[in-house]
Write a structure and sequence with these properties.
- The structure is a single chain.
- The chain is mainly beta.
- The chain has no helices and ten strands.
- The strands form two sheets. It has a six-stranded mixed sheet, with no helix packed on it. The protein has a four-stranded antiparallel sheet with strand order 1-3-8-7, with no helix packed on it.
Length: 114
């Protein structure tokens, strides 16, 4: 079955960077578009970025365009989210998700604060 394990979160100062990773298993990774979502306290879970199975097509929420980059390594069954110029409003739990699956991993906490 689908399994997704997010990692790489932490506490970072405004303007800093982090790289999140999501290790996938239980399916043919390269066949699926993958998503990063985030959920801030008291708010709904929102899509941040997604990437096609080949990695050639990416899409971003307006709030992160130019600051975040999604990528994937199909040999490692892993999708990444490189986050730069982080802002306090980026504070949230970040989750990865596979297209067509309702499975959510445990997420990884990102806190942007001075």
């Amino acid at each position: 079955q689908v399994q997704l394990v997010e990692s790489g979160g932490g506490l970072v100062q405004p303007g800093g960077s982090l790289r999140l990773s999501c290790a996938a298993s239980g399916f043919t990774f390269s066949n699926y578009r993958m998503y990063w979502y985030r959920q801030a306290p008291g708010k709904e879970r929102d899509m941040v970025a997604n990437i096609s199975g080949t990695g050639r097509s990416t899409r971003y929420a307006d709030s992160v365009k130019g600051r975040f980059t999604i990528s994937r390594d199909n040999a490692k069954n892993t999708v990444y989210l490189q986050m730069s110029n982080l802002k306090p409003e980026d504070t949230a739990v970040y989750y990865c998700k596979r297209l067509g699956s309702n499975y959510w991993g445990q997420g990884t906490q990102v806190t942007v604060s001075s």
